[in-house]
Amino acid sequence: MVFFSLVRMKICRAEYKTIAKFIEQLRPTRQCMKILKDRFPNHSQSTLLSIFSLEYQKRMKRTLVKHQDVVEDYFQRYRSEAKKRPSDPVLLELANEVDLSPSLLARLLVERFLEEQQGSVSSKQVLNSMLKEPSLIPDMQLAKHVEQCTINDCCYGPLVDCIKHAIGQEHEEILREKLRERNLSFLDENHLRAKGYDKTPDIILEVPIAVEGHIVHWIESKASFGDEQSHRTYLNEQFWSYWNRFGPGLVIYWYGFISELDCQRDRGILLKDCFPTDIVTLCHGSSHC
Amino acid sequence: MSFRMAALLESLLQREVELNRALDWLRGRHECEENGQDLQVRKQEFVPFLLNFLRDQSSNSLTHGPATPAKTPSTSRPLRAQGTSSERRGNRSSTGQGSRSTSRIQLFSPAANTSQPGDNPNELDNTLNSSHGSHGLTGISQFSSPSFSSGWSPAPRYTPSERRSAQRHCLADFMTSPPETQPSPTAQQHRGRRRMGPFGASAASRQTGARSGQMEEGCRWDGAGRKGRVAVKMNEPVSPPTQVELNFNNLDDFPPVGAAHVSPIPAKPSRRINPTPVSTERPNSKPKSCFTSTPLSQPCSSSPSIPETFGPGPSAASPLCLQEERELLKKERSKLAQQTSSPAKPIPGVCTPTRPVRPGSKVTPDPQAPGPDPAKVTHAPELNLLAEIYCTCISENLVPCVFLEVFFVLQLLTTRSVAPSDTMEQDPPVPGGKTDALERDYLGNVHNCVYFAVQVLENQFTLLSHLDRCTLRLLAENERVGVFSPGLRDLLVQAQDSCTSKVIPDLHTFIHSVPFQPATDNRTNFSSDKAFHIFKKQRDIFYELLREWEDYHKEPGWEFEAALGNRVRAMVSQLTAAGNHCHFARLFQKQLVQMCKGPRVLGSPGDAPDADLLGMLGADSLGRLKRLQERLIQPQALSGPCPPPSFPGNQEFFRDFLQTASCCQLNQHLKDGLCQQLLQLNEVSILGPEATSDEGEEGVDGDMEQQDEKQRYSSVLVVAQVLAKFLGFISFLPYQTSEAPSREIQEAAVTLRSKSAPVLDVCAVLRSCIHRKRTVLTIPWLVEFLSMLDYTGPFLPSYRDAFGLLLQFYRRMRLGKVGGQFYLNQMLLVATLGWLFQIPVFPDDLFFSMDLKDELKELENHTSNQGLDNLPLVDEQLLYTCCPYLGEFRKLLAAFVSGSASKTGGLIRKITPTSAEPRGPPTTRSQQKIHLDLEQAFFHNQPPSLRRTVEFVAERIGSNCVKHIKATLVSELVRGGEKTLRDGLGSDCVNAAKLNDSICAQLCDAGMQALEKATRFCSENAPRAVRVLLPEETSQTVLTTAESITTRLATEKACSWLSSNITTLIKREWKSSFERVIKTLPSPTSKESLNTEEANRSLQPPKSSSGQETGSFCPPDCNNEAPLASDVIVEIKEVLSIAVGPRTEEEVFTVQQIFSLLDKVEQTLKSRKFMSPVAEQMLLRCTVLLASKLVSGELPVVSSTETNRRALPDLRPLLEEFVLIWTRTPSAPLTLLLSELTLTTMLHTNDVQRCNYLLLIKLLIEKGLLKEDEVGSRWMKLSELSWPVESVEKFKKLSLASPSTVPSVKHTDILQVSP
User: Fold this and answer.
1) Cα angle vertex B504, ends B499, B506, to 5°?
2) Which of A133, A151, A236 lies nearest to residue B1137, judging by beta carbons?
3) Contact B940 A183 (CB under 8 A)
4) Residues with pLDDT less than 70, chain B
5) Is pLDDT above 70 for A281?
6) Do B309 and B108 touch, CB atoms closer than 8 A?
7) A263, A284, A288: best mutation site toward chain B, by most B Cβ within 10 Å?
8) What phi and psi, each to the nearest 5 degrees, are found at residue B207?
9) H-only helix segments in B638-699
């Protein structure tokens, strides 16, 4: 499988900073992704993409408000440009110029467009569906440009959302598969919800295992890179809550993590970037118990 | 009163009273009426007098001397209690003396205060003072008085005026006594002191000789002692021996007594003692406190002794004005000292053996200091006599705390003091009759001290021999013991060998959370969704606080209140809003038990081995590690045998939490819960051997069960103690005051509070446990509960009665009268009670004043033989867990050794080898540990009943297994043996004894099969039993795991018992059988002999119990070959983004590339394993998009290679491929191909592309994926656009009319319509 390369994806804090620094100047286009890959050939593509995504999202969260303030300006600029050269990727160019995610810009402008057309603010749902299916946009030219934006954007947009979702699902399934291979029985979220648990990790092992000498009751799969900020959030909102209810557990960051973050092992939270190999079980039924 | 005591002791010393009579009297055989002196003395009065006498006697030796850091754990007391009004009673002693006197005060002086406040100045004191000079008074004159002054019929020897003058004289003496009054010893001492770092006392005082020296030293002793310290400190951790050079004359550092000044010495928080809030909330409490409880590090107020040096003035005849006087003098003295002393000088008093490495003042013994020498002992007969009386008091439990006395004796043993001087060896002739017997300096030099100590130790050997191995070894290796009593040393060596303490592996290496149990924690247990969700958050916040506490609470400057206070309260207030108190109280209580049930928690903090080290070494080495660590850290850890109650380790968190939360609802719920669990635990049934083994067949399996029962007992006890402490804490929290209330307030409070029912009916519990002989379980936790009392609490009728009962119980609990098996049971009780009687909460006057009606006899009369007290339940491990202060002996002795390392050298070197030898490969050990951890972890998230079931079944199967072995293997073996024996006896000239031995040996060899058999038995039976007992819905894996754990536990139980007992068992069985045969066999019948081979027959090779390997499933997982949807989508996205542009010239695809992409899509869609519906939809959508970009020519595709770049490829095969995919996975959003956007695009394309488009549509219609009318209706919509209608119509017609052959040129016209 593609995912289980032998490349370790742990990255030390300093190196992560270098990468993040480099990412600051990039745009979420396939051209930029290529530059990134060339600059850091030692890291897997998916790890780099995941890091890019994290850093880019941080950037967008920081600056979105600023852009929202000048939507009108963007809209007018788009209008005039689109008139001048209708077949050029003017919306995409604008996004890159102002350093806003193309999908986000497309969304802002569609919203603005609809507002103008219908005289009222459209619902999120409508917006989402139009972004997902640009042909629903009443203006064919805008639709074309929006499609161009959403397809080109590496970090936002319906396509990316779906990819992220798919990756998450796939890794949970990969995890389950690995557990089945090892004959480890578990309850997944659905079981747990049914029983009335208030917080549910992806996996609860019915019989705990020891990974690298640490007891593991639950496993959480994270199909992303574990950087400082997201890990902290996860710890507060998920991992510690799991610990509080089920005891120590394991988190798999399939796309790697900052190695320094793996410092709670003795406390009951173990980080891995792949399915562990060093597993000790209560080998039920065998004579070696 | 005290005079009588003195007279009695004197007459004993002078042999005027027969020692035996006195001893008998002490033992309660008869009352003492002596010698026409008409000494009618009560034991309660004599004992404190004796104790004080000894303390005073030794006060010099224990503290004096340059290079002899005192052994008093009370050295360098922190502030002594600042003078509250109640202090007055103790002032005499507290001012003058250090620890010795302190202890006395703490122990006994209160009586004086309470009953006869004005009677304080002590007759004996005065007597002595007046009777001769200052010399020789060291012990008694100044210090003894408060101790034995008591409210009991004072009979002053002197009239008040006499007293006053005597006192005056005495004080003047102090002040100015010229060197010649205190001739010899001082000179040397001063030299020494100066060498070590001058004391910073005023020159005058330095020259006053021994006495003033003493006073200087006084600061190191705790005048008011422990209580004062404890009182002052609230949450301030007790600092380690302070490294700060103290200027004892600095008023800021050492505020005068009565200044109510909190010690400004910054506490260095590296070592925490966790003073109880109880004590901490009474900063300026009564001076009474327990001897030696304060850590050495605490600086003490230097001043108390000082006033007397100054105070010839309005001499202190009246105790009432003494106080003020002292204050004044203290200040004066302090001022003076400030001027004369250099602040940087190290203070010898601070330097103790507990702190061997101290820059500038090494504590290694002065090389010139003479070692104690038996030849130099003076007053040996008197010392013998004193020792004997003293030992009797100890043995009879006439002293409040037996172990405190042991500690004192060990201090004497290890005193660093040299003889004040050689001239001191002979008492200066003291004129004047009787008093001199008491004034002699019996314990004034090291030789005498050691001699006396060894005498006592010899006498108390039984008690000693039950201490831990390390202590015994330290004692045995103590050179002084060797020199003074080789016999004792040998005994100690022997006792050491027979010591069988084992460190059980600690399974709780990590903190567990309280598991979420659906049965109690899910939505149905809450009144509303909101409450449920709030509790969800609360649980997380609680653990967040806990983790933060764990991380930071040891850091300097960290305070619970400041760091967590607001969050705690916010969370708790939410509890109130949501009505979740009962849920949270349950969580809190469970977590408390989880975290505090480990034995480590109760030990002194810092004992916990580092988690990493633990992991590396595994459980086996824990014991060594711990011991090693203890040795390494003990220099800081000496806190005396009666430390105040505290919340060590994790308990601190829970205490601070409750204090900070300060939530009455929560507390009430907790009280309910704690009380309930406590009483449940108290009733836990622990079975004696008789009760379990059938038909009086005692022994064997009874023994094994006893082991389990013992473990259960100790775990129950430890938990109960924690719960009780917290129950007490919460219950008395509302009444805690910072100071002892005045008598009036107290009385009012008593009246008020005695109306409402106490949270726990202590007396009832106590009576019932005595009645049912369950004291060994109940009393230790009751002690914890009572130790949390507030000031007034003990005076409430119910608690006062309880104290009375406990006192009676203690008096009866004489260790000497106990059988070996239960010795440790009693020792535990004596130790915990002794501790209780010493801690601050115990009323001062109670021990020696309470008139005890002997209620106990009656209670005990009814008892049956059943009961815990007659079971050997306590082992050494538990004893030390429950009474960590017993470890102080070890520390004291070790400190002595490390101090004198240069001489002995022995122990220090031994540390390395013992701790370094590895046992077995480390991997296996840690594997073992992981396995055990895993088992613990397994139960964590299962319902508690699972664990109970497994443990129960394991226990029963293990026990049955032993019975089974006994019934089968053993009896077979013995039968076989009998035959052999009969046969052997049949033949002539056989030595029956020899035959017996050889058969027995054979049988024992054969007995080793037992382990195999047992293993098989357990693995056959345990799984079945568990399976039946677990609920149906238990999942298979859980069931299997439970079975295997049960099997392992049962096997382990059975095998461990068998391996150590099977030989004994066989021997015993064989013995009786042999005897039977011999008896009944004059007529040997040698028939067919069953040869011993039968007995020896080897069993079939051990079939491993659980052989069935879980077959390693081949993971073929062919599906996994397919690429993941996300990957494919990413790839298509890439292609699409090139299609929609912008792109470069180079970015083109070959048909082949698109084919392979489609191939991936196909595989992925086929495999579906990792596919989510969302991803599938997106994937299909992408293919549709891709197809449309392909036909519209937006996607730059070349036929194959570079050779033919310009040539337009034939797309038909590709399009067919698309259609194939959509045919297989029918839900593709094909209408996208008919969308306005696509059509618009198509209208802008060229003929080839339009043809491709039409081809695609045609293929789809053919496959039935698109319906013609649907296509038609879509195309109809074109008309709604701004296109000329006829163009559209034609487009439709053409395309539909010629579906098979792609029309080329002729359509161009039609479609060339621009919008």
Assistant:
1) 150
2) A151
3) no
4) 1-5, 15-16, 28-44, 59-370, 417-440, 498-511, 598-639, 688-705, 818-821, 850-866, 898-925, 988-990, 1080-1120, 1200-1207, 1276-1315
5) yes
6) no
7) A284
8) -90, -5
9) 651-661, 664-682, 689-692
Q: Is B1232 on the interface with A (CB under 8 A)?
A: yes
- Burial label for B370, CB within 10 Å (0-12, 13-18, 19+), is middle
Residue-wise pLDDT tens digits, A2-14: 444 445 588 899 9
A133 → chain B, closest CA residue: B1232
Contact B513 A246 (CB under 8 A): yes
The answer to whether residue A4 sits within a structural domain is no
Q: Answer yes or no: do B1136 and A151 touch at CB < 8 A.
A: yes
Please write the tens of the pLDDT for every residue from B1020-1073.
Answer: 888 888 888 888 888 888 888 888 889 988 888 888 888 888 888 888 888 888
Least confident interval from A58-62, A90-94, B148-152:
B148-152
pLDDT digits (tens, 9 = 90+) for B583-639: 999 999 999 988 887 654 333 333 333 333 333 444 344 455 555 555 554 444 466
CA dihedral B987, B988, B992, B998 (to 10 degrees): -60
Q: How far is A115 from chain B (nearest CA, A)?
A: 21
What is the tally of structural domains in chain A?
2
Same domain flag for A173 and A150:
no
- Rg (chain A; Cα; Å): 23
Distance CA B59, CA B140 (A): 10
What's the pLDDT score for residue B729? 94
Same domain for A149 and A178, yes or no, is: no
Same domain, A125 and A27: yes
pTM equals: 0.67
Output the average pLDDT for chain A: 88
The verdict on A268 and A140 lying in the same domain is: no
Q: Which of residues 929 through 968 in chain B touch A, CB cutoff 8 A? A: 930-931, 933-935, 937-938, 940-941
Among residues A125, A156, A187, the one where a domain terminates is A156
- Assess if residue A44 is contained within a domain: yes
User: Which residues from chain A sit within 8 angstroms of residue B1012, using beta carbons?
Assistant: none
Are residue A188 and residue A125 in the same domain, yes or no?
A: no
Q: What is the pLDDT of residue B1120?
A: 56
Among B536, B934, B1129, select the one facing A162 at the smallest CB separation.
Answer: B1129
Would the CB atoms of A289 and B1048 count as touching at under 8 Å?
A: yes
Q: Does some domain include residue A1? A: no
Two structure tokens written together for B508: 């709780």
CB half-sphere exposure, B515, CA atoms < 13 A: 18
Of A156, A185, A219, which residue sits at a domain end? Answer: A156
Q: Are residues A151 and A170 in the same domain?
A: no
Query: How many angstroms separate the CA of residue B102 from the nearest CA in chain A?
Result: 46
d(CA A90, CA A79): 9
Question: Same domain, yes or no, for A152 and A170?
Answer: no
Per-residue pLDDT tens for A153-197?
989 999 999 999 999 989 998 999 999 999 898 988 888 888 888
Domain enclosing residue A183, as ranges? 166-281
CB B1044 to CB A289 under 8 A? yes
Contact between residue B371 and residue B609 where contact means Cβ atoms under 8 Å apart: no
Give the A window 132-151 contacts with B, CB below 8 Å: 133-135, 140, 143-144, 147-148, 151
The domain that contains A271 carries what CATH number?
3.40.1350
A128 and A174 belong to one structural domain:
no
Alpha helices in B638-761 (DSSP H): 651-661, 664-682, 689-692, 700-732, 743-753
Contacts of B523 in chain A (CB under 8 A): 196, 198
How many contacts does A have with B, using Cβ atoms within 8 A? Answer: 220
- Chain B hits for A167, CB-CB cut-off 8 Å, are 1124, 1126
- Cβ–Cβ contacts within 10 Å for residue B1020, how many? 14
Confirm whether A36 is domain-assigned.
yes
* Banded model confidence at residue A62, pLDDT cuts 50, 70, 90: very high
Predicted confidence at residue B755, as pLDDT, reads: 87
Task: Map tokens 């669990």 to a residue.
Answer: B677
